[in-house]
Amino acid sequence: MHSPTQPPTRSPAHSRHASVVALWSGVLSAVLLALVAAEWGPLISFDRMVADALHDSAVRSPTIAGTNRILSDWVWDPWTMRVLVAVGVVWLWWRGERLLAVWTGVVSALGSAVQQVLKAAVGRDRPWWPDPVDTAHFAAFPSGHAMTAAVTCGLALWLLARFGVGRGPRTAVLVVGAVSVLGVGLTRVYLGVHWATDVLGGWLLGACLVALAVLAYERRLARAENRRDLAHQD
Q1: pLDDT digits (tens, 9 = 90+) for 155-204
Q2: Positive/negative CA dihedral, 180, 151, 99, 19
Q3: Longest dimension (CA), the chain
Q4: What is the C-alpha separation between 2 and 106, in angstroms, rounded?
Q5: CB 198 within 8 A of CB 184
Q6: What is the pLDDT of residue 15?
């Protein structure tokens, strides 16, 4: 077994960035949730306009629709993302970062729980088509695919930064993550199984959850450092 690493130190920069992301994504998530729950007319009209245009394109382009199904149901499927998180958890555990491993797994599981609770609470219907190109179950808001991708990629970027991985690999992961998060959201709307604002809600909620998790973890490290300093003074 790999020998345990030294206790991680907190990063004030991580805390500052997480605070900003948590604030803005939280506010925007709350506003969007309220508008969706209230079935605000302009938002509903926007969703319908986008959905109609993309569905017409998907029906006329079965090859493109099929490619989107592969990307959505296999490459960027929530279970694919959860497997990636599981690999990360095992790697952290092997390195001796037991708390961080558990923290990462819990945040991922919490993301799944939050989206299911919100789906049941909001109860938004998915788009309905007489000629569907794909099908999906459960309520629409928020998009589970979009939220799971945002949580997974956000955690990956945070962990790479925390372990001081070089700029090159981090940039590569950032690009792949951005393509995945944006891509899976677009595929869900293109396939006609989500409204555009379902996807936006998933992105915002995923970003908010990761930011809150990072903030809580960094503050926990800060408290641990303060206790160690006090112990050394005694």
Answers
A1: 999 999 988 889 899 999 999 999 999 999 999 999 999 999 999 999 99
A2: positive
A3: 74
A4: 23
A5: no
A6: 78
